Write a sequence for this structure.
């Protein structure tokens, strides 16, 4: 019965009970209760218990049963190595060979070369070869996330024989809901959904009912582009082909959700200047170590700013009031730079910004910077006049804010575009970096203007 | 044949050719070529052409064919209203009634009350009632994104009769890959995948092979929580039940991808202080208007900072050199505050931070702030001593940076936690806001220290 509901983070299984069964060596009772759980819940339990309890789990579960857990488990990078080293190597190798190839590749990618090789040697040669091929694809490409367990049907089969193939392949294929149709040369020529197959007449030829307009990706395509296509077309799986149009693998929607999540979290982290290792679970020392590199780099940039400002010490000495508006000006220009940066990074990530539209984006941001700069400038002049009854200082601060926003907005869109051009991930031009850069320029603009018009201000 | 590949943003269809067929009123040729396209490509074409060509499309396509386009189209909010108002109202109503209910609800939600009512009145009463029910669920809940087109099977059916139901329902159901098993009271009692069904013996009872451990969500559950569960368990669909355990609808994976995308983009936008309307397509004036509210609010906060600094004008007059380090201190504390903010917002979003672990996060961030503060403080003292040969100013700036980072890190995690507690989306405590807040505190700390130790500095 459906008694167990998920209320927030409440677990769906009885952890103490399972632990007790393991400790009292109740193998049958443990297997009965544990194997009734969804693999995700099995994984949560496995992940949570200590190493000695895990040793008992390895004894009680077959490598095949363990493989289901490792297909869904979401570990820190170094934990894969740790957990695998706990297992008997032969057990680990057999588990890996029972996993879907794409998931096995994910795990093997976390190991060092030597360990990876030793596992591959222990596997049966066919599986090892398939995995080796996938390991050869560059990270973040379609080839690296595809699986080789899928169902293909020859175009001249009947619906009846296709259903028979499907029934046979169902237990091993990662998805049977799309059937990929190939010709004698294994070239992809069509696609069918299981939905269409089960409502079709049994004697009809696949070739006559398949869809010939297959949307496919190449092994070398970027995983983000693949995610975009699958999202746009609402696909549950997409075929991956090589340059010769031969079917090499498929990518299923669950892997794409992981890609979307990863990329989004990555962009977010970079905007904030943090690393993905800096999550809730990290201890304070580890968190500090991941944050410090950015902070120290920015500290040096800040010292550089301070040094530049030192050139204007004479001006600041004459009119100390000038210093009061520095945080206002650098803050506002930093904010508008971050806004422009975020729009550009997002545009590049979604593919809306391409070679032809780069100039258009820059032109647009120039105008946007001008509008926002003027609006903020006028506001500041008004506030300073109404509040402090200072018109000269007000005009100076207003002019500085207007120019700084303009420059910051252009820089905020130009820098990610330039990085994209140079083949660097534009998200690396993170928020803190743009902000610090804009600190420098805005202060130069402000104190430069102040020094020029020092006689009017005093 | 699979000749048409996607190279970056290259389209998969011949736009000019389709336009020509429309203009020359070649209805049969247009229908043949257009309907062979994937609905997503149909939508891209439909979206791109002008209003008079769209009028011809309405003439050439049935409301049912148009419904497929509207199920996948991704328009700006106000475009739904515009496109629907172009159609004959009866045509529009029929199109809406042919759409999956969840997609129809998405479209109707973009219209004003009056328009919505008039469309609902023109639909057949059964569909209108189903849609009305979905419209009643609060935004961002499972109820609001679920669909009512799914396949249910009674638990005492045989596999054979279940397959017959499936074949009958396949054309209308949003997914047939999961079959939800109910008892006589429509209560959810089990689930089966089509994969399990097609390999099962035809005479067996569903009750004997279904999985009784159904993972389900409640109609009122937050869509982000639903997304998290579907991601964890790799589900293609999840059933939605009411408090009485009665099945009310299902949520499919394509809707969940949209949720994940939206939420991620939302958090990203808020960290940068931009709105989702501020995308690549927006004109410079529109972009400026969406960015200005934040900039102006922060400008007022900045003026407040300036005013506070004014209190220290006497100190700044005595030692103008002090002003030189203001951007360094406020910048560094702003950066560390944003880092802490991003970790907290992400932790809350993924559900890792809950009531029990809030205090743990705060304690951790106190220590992290202390470590990073000390490290940056010592670095600054060293730099200023080595570079400027100033020890007193160095110690002052170092102490100010150390304290500011500590305060900023704590504030960066405390504020989103507090907002979450108050029921406000923590991502609203955006990067610019935290940065400006930390400007104020860091400058108060710095100039406060400077004023206290003014005699040592001079």
């Amino acid at each position: 019965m459906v008694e167990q509901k998920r209320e927030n983070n409440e677990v769906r299984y009885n952890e103490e009970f399972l632990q007790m069964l393991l400790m009292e060596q109740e193998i049958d009772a443990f297997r009965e209760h544990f194997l009734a759980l969804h693999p995700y819940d099995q994984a949560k339990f496995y992940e949570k218990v200590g190493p000695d309890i895990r040793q008992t789990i390895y004894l009680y579960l077959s490598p095949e049963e363990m493989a289901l857990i490792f297909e869904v488990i979401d570990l820190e990078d170094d934990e894969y190595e740790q957990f695998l080293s706990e297992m008997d190597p032969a057990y680990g190798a057999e588990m890996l060979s029972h996993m879907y190839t794409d998931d096995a590749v994910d795990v093997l990618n976390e190991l060092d070369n030597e360990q990876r090789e030793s596992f591959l040697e222990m596997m049966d040669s066919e599986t090892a070869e398939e995995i080796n091929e996938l390991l050869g694809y560059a990270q973040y490409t379609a080839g690296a996330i595809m699986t080789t367990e899928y169902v293909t049907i020859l175009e001249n089969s009947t619906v009846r024989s296709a259903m028979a193939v499907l029934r046979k392949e169902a237990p091993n294929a990662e998805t049977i809901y799309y059937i990929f149709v190939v010709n004698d040369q294994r070239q992809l020529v069509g696609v069918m959904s299981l939905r269409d197959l089960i409502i079709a007449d049994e004697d009809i030829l696949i070739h006559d009912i398949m869809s010939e307009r297959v949307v496919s990706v190449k092994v070398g395509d970027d995983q983000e582009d693949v995610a975009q296509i699958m999202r746009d077309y609402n696909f549950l799986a997409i075929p991956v082909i090589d340059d010769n149009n031969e079917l090499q693998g498929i990518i299923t929607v669950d892997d794409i959700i992981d890609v979307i999540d990863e990329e989004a979290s990555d962009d977010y982290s970079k905007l904030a200047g943090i690393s993905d290792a800096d999550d809730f679970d990290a201890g304070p020392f580890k968190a500090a170590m991941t944050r410090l590199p950015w902070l120290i780099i920015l500290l040096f940039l800040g010292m550089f700013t301070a040094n530049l400002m030192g050139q204007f010490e004479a001006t600041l000495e004459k009119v100390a009031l000038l210093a009061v508006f520095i945080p206002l000006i650098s803050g506002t220009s930093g904010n508008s730079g971050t806004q422009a940066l975020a729009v550009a990074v997002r545009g590049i990530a979604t593919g809306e910004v391409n070679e032809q539209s780069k100039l258009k984006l820059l032109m647009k941001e120039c105008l946007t910077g001008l509008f926002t700069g003027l609006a903020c400038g006028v506001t500041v002049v008004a506030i300073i006049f109404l509040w402090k009854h200072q018109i000269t200082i007000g005009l100076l601060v207003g002019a500085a804010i207007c120019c700084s926003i303009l420059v910051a907005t252009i820089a905020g869109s130009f820098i990610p575009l330039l990085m994209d051009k140079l083949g660097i991930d534009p998200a690396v031009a993170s928020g803190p970096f743009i902000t610090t850069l804009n600190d420098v320029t805005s202060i130069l603009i402000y104190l430069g203007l102040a020094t020029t018009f020092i006689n009017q201000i005093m």
